[in-house]
Amino acid sequence: MNLLLTEYKLNNLLTLKNRIVMAPMTRAHATSEFVPTDEMIDYYARRSACGLIVTEGTIISKDARGHENIPGIFNQAQINKWRLITDKVHSNNGLIFLQIWHVGRVSHPKFLNNNLPIGPSATLMSGKIKREKDLYYGQSQEASLFEINNIINNFAIAAQNAIKAGFDGVEIHGANGYLIDQFLHYHTNHRLDVYGEVPHNLARFAIEVVKACGDTIGFDKVGIRLSPGGYLNEIVGDPKDQLVFKYLLEQLNNYKLAYVHTGSFDDHKTYQELDNLTMSDFIRKFYKGAVIACGSYTLIEAQNGIENNKFDLIAFGRPFIANYDLVEKIKLNKKLIDYNESMLNAIY
Ligand code: FNR
Questions:
Q1: For ligand 1, is residue 317 a contact (CB within 6 Å)?
Q2: Residue in 4, 180, 225, 265 to alter for ligand 1 test, most ligand atoms within 8 A of Cβ
Q3: Positive or negative CA dihedral for 9, 246, 271, 172?
Q4: Ligand 1 centre and the CA of 227: distance in Å?
Q5: Residue 314 in contact with residue 306, Cβ under 8 Å?
Q6: Dist CA 226 CA 174 (whole Å)
Q7: What is the mean pLDDT of the chain?
Q8: For the chain, what is the largest distance between any 2 Cα atoms, rounded to a whole number of angstroms?
Q9: What is the rounded CA–CA span in Å between residue 162 and residue 347?
């Protein structure tokens, strides 16, 4: 019996028909006004045989973005179009969460009315911006308490809009070096106020976002993605980071969240700053609820991981781009098509 194909009861509200999750993947195929397109309806509907779809990162406000053509969830036109997507997924008996996103410093004044991107602290980022020609990351500025409050509020509104659009829940994007993750790592958080210096302060912003969303739509409809190891968007791990994530995960046990999801491209990697554990093993150690692992898993590794109780659900990203019928192929034991980057050019 293939464990990947067994049902999983996430909570009283949500039962997944199998253990396979579609990982959130930015496609940058929305309109210039951040509205999903017709192609996106079919793209998600085609993949609704998995237990849960998590959509691409979706911005909570116009200034939450790091490039163009990202979908949003802050106005009626966006809600209406997402509604067509969720309706079609539901008519195929699927479940779908919206990943809600603020990039923080991983942006550029070009997208922000010439203002510097904000982060927990003023930092410098280097490197070319993906999917943009001749545009480079640079200086960010420290978010004020007013701005922080405003962003927390925008996350809660985004969660509410997601429910209006028919989503089964939201996944807070707390991973991969974006805004929430920037608060969680010492490398990017040098604040001296209630959001900095000590682990419970570094975890404060993440917890406030979780609380604001949960209070608005119910905690059983809220998941969060986390990257306890520093690995993407120039986050460098610090030995003290593990205290922040340990505190955060223990606090998350107090809310009956839908799940915690590992944000990683390769979950085989172990991190010195996490006592040489992988990210999913670290999350499993401190978090008592459902864990979704993700990051370069083979089907066999995913099955073994669930069998050995290392995690409850497995998310696949690139395999889902290459194989819209991934679940069907797993059922029939058919060979998978390999992913390659050129597949990102079209949305199918
Ligand atoms: C991603 N990933 C990602 N993660 C996330 O939390 N939000 C996002 O919007 C994106 N965007 C994105 C775009 C593309 C094109 C790829 C390939 C990946 C990361 C993704 O969810 C997943 O963690 C990785 O792809 C690793 O899983 P696989 O692909 O090895 O199964």
A1: yes
A2: 265
A3: positive
A4: 12
A5: yes
A6: 5
A7: 97
A8: 56
A9: 22
pLDDT of residue 214: 98
Tokens of 177: 């070096």
CA of 27 relative to ligand 1 center, distance in Å: 10
* Local structure of 58: helix, strand or coil: strand
The preferred substitution site among 26, 102, 279, 320 for testing ligand 1, maximizing ligand atoms within 8 Å of CB, is 26
Q: Token digits for 44?
A: 């998600």
Radius of gyration of the chain (CA): 19
Nearest-angstrom CA–CA distance, 33 and 330: 37
The Cα-based distances of 71 to 26, 30, 34, 112, 207 in angstroms read 9, 5, 4, 16, 25
Q: Which residues are catalytic?
A: 178
Find all residues with CB under 8 Å of 289, minimum gap 6, and list them. 252, 253, 256, 257, 259, 260
What's the rounded Cα separation, in Å, for the pair 184 and 44? 31
Q: Is 232 in the pocket of ligand 1 (CB under 6 A)?
A: no
Backbone angles phi, psi at 167, to 5 degrees: -70, 150
In the chain the domains, ranked by start, together with CATH numbers, are: 2-345 (3.20.20.70)
If you measure from the C-alpha of residue 238 to the centroid of ligand 1, how many angstroms do you get, rounded to a whole number?
24
3-state secondary structure of 57: strand
Determine contact, residues 285/277, Cβ cutoff 8 Å.
yes
**For atom 6 of ligand 1, which residue has the closest CA?**
24
**157-177 confidence digits (pLDDT tens):** 999 999 999 999 999 999 999
Q: Would you state the pLDDT for residue 246? A: 98
